[in-house]
Amino acid sequence: MVVSDQHTETADAGEGVGPTPGAGVAQDGSLALGGGVVADDGVRPAPVVGQPDASTRTPALELRKVSKRFGVAWAVRDVSFCIYPGEAMALLGDNGAGKSTVVKMISGALSPTSGELYVTGKKVRFSSSQAARRAGIATVYQDLGLVPTMSVWRNFFLGAELRTKGRLDVRRMRWEAEESLKEIGLRNLRSVDQNVMRMSGGEQQALSIGRAVHFEQKVLLLDEPTAALSVKETEKVFEYIGRAKARGVAVLVIMHNTAQALRCAEKVVVMRHGRVISERRVEGDTSALMEAVNGDISGVGESLQ
Amino acid sequence: MANSPAGMGGLETVAPGKGSRNGRSPGGAGSFRDRTFTSYISLRTLAVTGVIIAVILILEGTSGGRLLQGVNVGGVLDASSEIGFIAIGVTILMIGGEFDLSVGQSFVASGMTFATIYHTVGVVPAIVVGLATGAAIGFVNGFITLSFGIPSFITTLGTSYVVAGMVLLVTGAAPISAISLPASFHMFGGYVFGLPVRWEVVWWIGLVVVMGLVLHKTAFGNHVFAAGGKPEVAKNIGVRVVRTKMTLFVLCGMFAAFSGIVLFAHLGDIEASAGSGLQLEAIAAAVIGGTALFGGVGTVYGGAIGSLFLGVLTVGLVLSGASTTYYELFVGIVLIGAVALQAKVEGLGNFTKRMTERLRIQRAFSGSEALSREELYGGE
């Protein structure tokens, strides 16, 4: 990753960028603000339009006019948004709206054709998913985060094993994994020695989320975390997300289901045809909001784009 | 029932009864004890151990009670250790998700290199050069496999022919024999303090223990399991998959080389055909001992038990006066039996089985009566 030397306030947050009218709702102070969100001097990005108190906070993740072109087709065009520590944002959109391309750019699997990414105010460019991980972005893919043939604690510490005198500190790793999973809300796990293969989908989500929180990742990227889960397990995943937020992690959730998105996120961004077409705060009457968001997703009632 | 221990193979098996003890109770930090030995020796390995004991008893009968005599027990261990050295390397390589079909040729090439040079350069330098020969073959295997993305099955099949050809070219198919064995060869082929057990057996057991610790108690070992279990995930998380696999290829070649050196030190002669079939025997030993063919699951101890089974069969059948055809017959049956057991109990080759198991777990933990469509069809 490349960290830019200095990022001064620019005018590029002006017209045409991301937020549509109605998006610039003030941050309500009730959001859990994790510790250690102090911006480094000089590297604080320009305040986004309509964020009155943004000058006191640095977004954990910010995208500015990010675009991605495949051949002649623009999969993603001028996407901008930001997520603050302790906040969850849901990215919604129909199939082909460009959500997964955005996810891949944030997680380092693809690099943007143009535009910039900032992690805690520092400009970053990822050459690989490992680089993104090192920069503090934990991506929880449905199928790409865990080794099914390995135990819970071995997965938890894979690539970051604790050692004493060259040998694995098994006792400490098992204990820390167990504690972290309890803390994230996974209380009924039979044993941290069991294979991940034998865990339910929700438990696997807990493991991935708990691991990201434990290793103090700044941004948690969840790609359709509830797609394969029962109602009950979906509730649990919301609990895990809530606890991650309480620890100051910024969460980006990619979803299909508007109702679920409104339940776990403070902010909802809708994409269509590769562009962000609306950005809304979740507050007040959610049923009206849901209708509006669903309208944005389907494009019904819009004259043209 | 959800934590039915039956058939949970592999490294992370939870001991029977352990699951229910820790259960779903909140359980304090210290509620988990250190794992028992069944965590390391899978239940499948224990089952295979049972089969071996049965085979020993049968052969003890057919050999007229001679199999368990001291001398013959020593013979069993000798035979086991020769394939056992190779099986260590093959097992860890298979856990890492790769194959080596050239171990028989590494065995011969290294043994012959050692046999050719030990009286001019000295025994210890000759051992080093012999091991380096095996390491070089392993390195070539790894390099070709990993940089061209060729399945190691194919790469090592190719290198096995190449090395076999080179050995024939150099030796002209003539065996190499020692006129007299130097005293230092005693460290492999000599008897341990007057017991009917040779030092090579001690070396074998020592290396099994050491490699077992490396595999289960170090970060490197953790990465081996990850690289074999799901390489994309391992890479994504920051494990150096290529480096890990390369190390395994080199180690595998070195273990085969060590076996070749030990064989020469023990017998005093070696010929080009000595290594034929060893690669399949080593894979058989690994698989009988519970190593998964597709990587990510297995134990060094399992590979050792598989080797012991082959040793028991070799000596037991000879003592019973049976033809060597029976050896291959038995190996074949047990090999298929072991893999069938693996498919059956782990449900790894059996999707339906896996799903029902998972649903039972979900039901047990969520307490829900009905299961949704998503639970039935999603998430796999």
Order of helices and strands of chain A: EEEHEEHEHEEHHEHEHEEH
Strand order of the largest sheet of chain B: 1-2
CA-atom Rg of chain B in angstroms: 22 Å
What would the principal axes of the Cα set say about the shape of chain B? globular
Fraction of residues in H or I helices of chain A: 25-40%
N-to-C terminal Cα separation of chain A, in Å?
Answer: 35 Å
What is the CATH C-level name of the largest domain in chain B? Mainly Alpha
Number of helices of chain A: 8
Read across the widest sheet of chain A, the strand sequence of neighbours is 6-9-10-3-11-12
Structure description:
The complex is a heterodimer of chains A (305) and B (380). By secondary structure, chain A is an alpha/beta fold. Chain A has a domain at 54-143 and 205-298: P-loop containing nucleotide triphosphate hydrolases (Rossmann fold, 3-Layer(aba) Sandwich), CATH 3.40.50. Helices cover 28% and strands 22% of the residues of chain A. Chain A has eight helices and twelve strands. Chain A has helices at residues 99-106, 129-134, 152-156, 170-184, 201-214, 231-246, 258-264, 286-298; strands spanning 61-70, 73-83, 88-93, 114-119, 122-124, 137-140, 163-164, 167-168, 219-223, 250-255, 267-272, 275-281. In chain A, the strands form three sheets. Chain A has a six-stranded mixed beta sheet, with helices on both faces. In chain A, strands 2-1-4-5 form a four-stranded antiparallel beta sheet, covered by helices on one side. Chain A starts with 60 loop residues before the first strand and ends in a 7-residue tail after the last helix. With 380 residues, chain B is mainly alpha-helical. Chain B has two domains: 67-323, ABC transporter involved in vitamin B12 uptake, BtuC, CATH 1.10.3470; 354-380, no CATH class. Chain B is 68% helix and 1% strand. Chain B has 16 helices and two strands. In chain B, strands 1-2 form a two-stranded antiparallel sheet. At the A-B interface, helix 2, strand 8, helix 4 and helix 6 of A face helix 1, helix 9, helix 10 and helix 15 of B.
